[in-house]
UniProtKB/TrEMBL annotation:
It catalyses: deamido-NAD(+) + L-glutamine + ATP + H2O = L-glutamate + AMP + diphosphate + NAD(+) + H(+). The gene is nadE. This is Glutamine-dependent NAD(+) synthetase. Residues 493-513, 567-594 are annotated as: Disordered. In the C-terminal section; belongs to the NAD synthetase family. Belongs to the NAD synthetase family. ATP binds at G334, L335, S336, G337, G338, I339, D340, S341, T435. Keywords: ATP-binding, Ligase, NAD, Nucleotide-binding. It is an enzyme of class 6 (ligase).
Length: 594
């Protein structure tokens, strides 16, 4: 057996910032070297960030990526780090003749091995995901190589992300080609409870490949996607050896005992991949002699997060990175005293600090006294910046010039509030956060250019019942992280905001249940219709009330045009309102229960 100390760089690149990402690669490699690592593995498309979407169709961007990978190799060598092999993802191109249906320039979702100032070997993702948020047939052509490099007497193979999730391809070839370690750079977005699925998959692939497997995943927010890290190392038997924390950057250092290389021959040969393709295995040698025996470090296994904690962590990270990566200094939102705005403000405070959170209390003639007092109490508890702008006179000014009634009059109030927030955003440079939840967006319970006006929507993918759950969970954490006021643990959200009946307060005595069913009933139906794509007959068969099925389906279908105009927000479910779910706005298909 031979020893290797590997470093998995679970870091947070910025899309398109090749220079900063290269700087980070050098910095993190130095940190790994200082801790005695023999190999450093970065994430999928680390140098370019992921996903880069249509940037890969620009020749200038791909050329910059190729130049960056060569520059990174040189910089590592110049920094005295050239002896440490580094695996890192970037965008390359295949040398293919143009043809109809092939992405412009034939880009590759590639990974390179950097050593002694050179790009020693390149590979690319073989399986291209084309489901959910992924459109990789649009962007990339398929790779067909499996590099295996010998490092200190151990054969190390490289595969990329989706190649782990699909049958056949490079991972299936590893068992036949022989390797002691398989390293897999990933950019795998967060979804609820995905960590359990991911670990089981990694363990199964390690057993199939017959070798240890090191899975390094990106962390950070990128528009509507959140990457949760959760990098893992498992043994050849699938046993968990080491695991990084979730939703934070970490350099995971792990010592492994691995079998010495069994194959003497170098060069290339081809293997049937089990998916109808042929993979070219490319063997090369960096160092044949094992390292001198050393005392291994104890591996680290991060604490498991429960479901509510992981969702809240994902939302906080998404807001933090959207603000930082888009150059905002502060955020602003309307604070009504209700639970949705209360949770949104709390997430923002946790993400960027209460001193950078601004809220506006905008009471109308229909706002209850307790709503105003609840909003003010949240401000006092959290120490965020607040101002009050009553809207009754502003609304009256509109009403003097144009006669509106019913829903139109209600929506006018929401639009006045949206106008105030956008005006303050323009004046002070704040990012406007919208406060609508997934239940509201699903049923169209939002006002265009009113409560939908803004730049980012933190709870866009959070059903109303989960809003309450997250709020209670966050309050339960008070005091555990040093949140005290006058010596007492202070929950950040007033209990009355959580307990009171939801209301938009746009007319006298209004309640959400005037136009919507109870949220626990509604959310179960929405989960089946939106998340699981059940038709009306399936919904009835699943136990939902037929009349309610008809009513809710109609609400959801008719609100598609509103959702298209809603700001982006973090994806936490398998099917968010965004890239996951793409339905035509002009659409005459209607589900029927018979």
């Amino acid at each position: 057996m031979a020893q290797l100390r590997i470093a998995l760089a679970q870091s947070n690149p910025a899309v398109g910032d090749l220079a900063a990402n290269t700087d980070r690669l050098v910095e993190w490699t130095r940190r790994a070297a200082d801790r005695g690592a023999h190999l450093v593995v970065f994430t999928e498309m680390f140098l370019t960030g992921y996903p880069v979407e249509d940037l890969v169709l620009r020749t200038s961007f791909v050329e910059a990526s190729i130049a960056a990978i060569e520059e990174a190799a040189r910089r590592l060598d110049e920094a005295g780090l050239g002896e440490i092999p580094v695996v890192v993802g970037y965008v390359d191109r295949a040398r293919l003749a143009p043809r109809v249906g092939q992405p412009k320039g034939a880009p590759l979702d590639a990974a390179a091995l950097l050593h002694r100032g050179q790009v020693v070997v390149k590979t690319a993702k073989h399986h291209l995901p084309n489901y959910g948020v992924f459109d990789e047939y649009r962007y990339f052509v398929r790779g067909d190589r499996l590099p295996i490099f010998r490092l200190h007497g151990v054969d190390v193979a490289i595969a990329v992300c989706e190649d782990l999730w699909q049958e056949g391809g490079p991972v299936a070839v590893v068992a036949e080609a022989g390797a002691g370690l398989l390293v897999v750079p990933n950019a795998s977005p967060y979804e609820r409870e995905k960590d359990d699925v991911r670990l089981a998959l990694v363990a199964r692939r390690a057993r199939e490949a017959g070798c240890a497997l090191a899975y390094v995943n990106q962390v950070g927010g990128q528009d509507e996607l959140v990457f949760d890290g959760d990098s893992v190392v498992v043994s050849a038997s699938g046993e968990l050896v080491a695991r990084a924390a979730r939703f934070s950057e970490e350099l995971l250092i792990t010592d492994l005992e691995l079998p010495e290389a069994r194959y003497g021959g170098l060069g290339t040969f081809q293997v049937e991949a089990g998916d109808g393709t042929v993979i070219t295995v490319e063997r090369l040698e960096l160092s044949a002699r094992p390292v001198e025996p050393y005392e291994p470090q104890a591996p680290t296994i991060a604490e498991h997060l429960d479901d509510t904690a992981e969702v809240y962590s994902a939302l906080v990270l998404a807001v933090r990175d959207y603000v930082a990566k888009n150059g905002f200094r502060s955020v602003i939102l309307g604070l009504s005293g209700g639970i949705d705005s209360a949770l949104t403000a709390t997430i923002a405070s946790d993400a960027i600090g209460p001193d950078r959170v601004h809220v506006v209390l905008m009471p109308s003639r229909y706002s209850s006294d307790h709503s105003v007092s609840d909003a003010q109490e949240l401000v006092d508890r959290q120490g965020i910046n607040a101002r009050t702008v009553p809207i009754a006179d502003i609304v009256s000014g509109f009403e003097k010039e144009i006669e509106l009634s019913g829903l139109a009059a209600e929506n006018l109030q929401a639009r006045v509030r949206g106008m105030i927030l956008m005006g303050l955003s323009n004046e002070h440079g704040h990012l406007v956060l919208t406060t609508g939840n997934k239940s509201e967006l699903a049923t169209g319970y939002s006002t265009l250019y009113g409560d939908s006006a803004g730049g980012f929507a933190p709870i866009k993918d959070v059903l109303k019942t989960l809003v309450w759950e997250l709020s209670r969970w966050r309050n339960a954490q008070a005091g555990r992280s040093g949140e005290f006021l006058h010596g007492f643990a202070v929950p950040p959200i007033p209990e009355s905001s959580i307990e009171k009946e939801p209301s938009a307060e746009l007319r006298p005595d209004q309640r959400d249940t005037d136009s919507l069913p109870e949220y626990d009933i509604l959310d179960r139906l929405l989960d089946d219709y939106v998340e699981k794509d059940m038709g009306s007959a399936e919904l009835v068969a699943a136990g939902h009330d037929p009349a309610l099925v008809t009513r809710v389906i109609r609400l959801v279908d008719l609100a598609e045009y509103k959702r298209r105009q809603y700001p982006p927000g973090p994806k936490i479910t398998p099917k968010n309102f965004g890239r996951d779910r793409r339905l035509p706005i002009t659409n005459r298909w209607r589900e029927t229960t018979t």
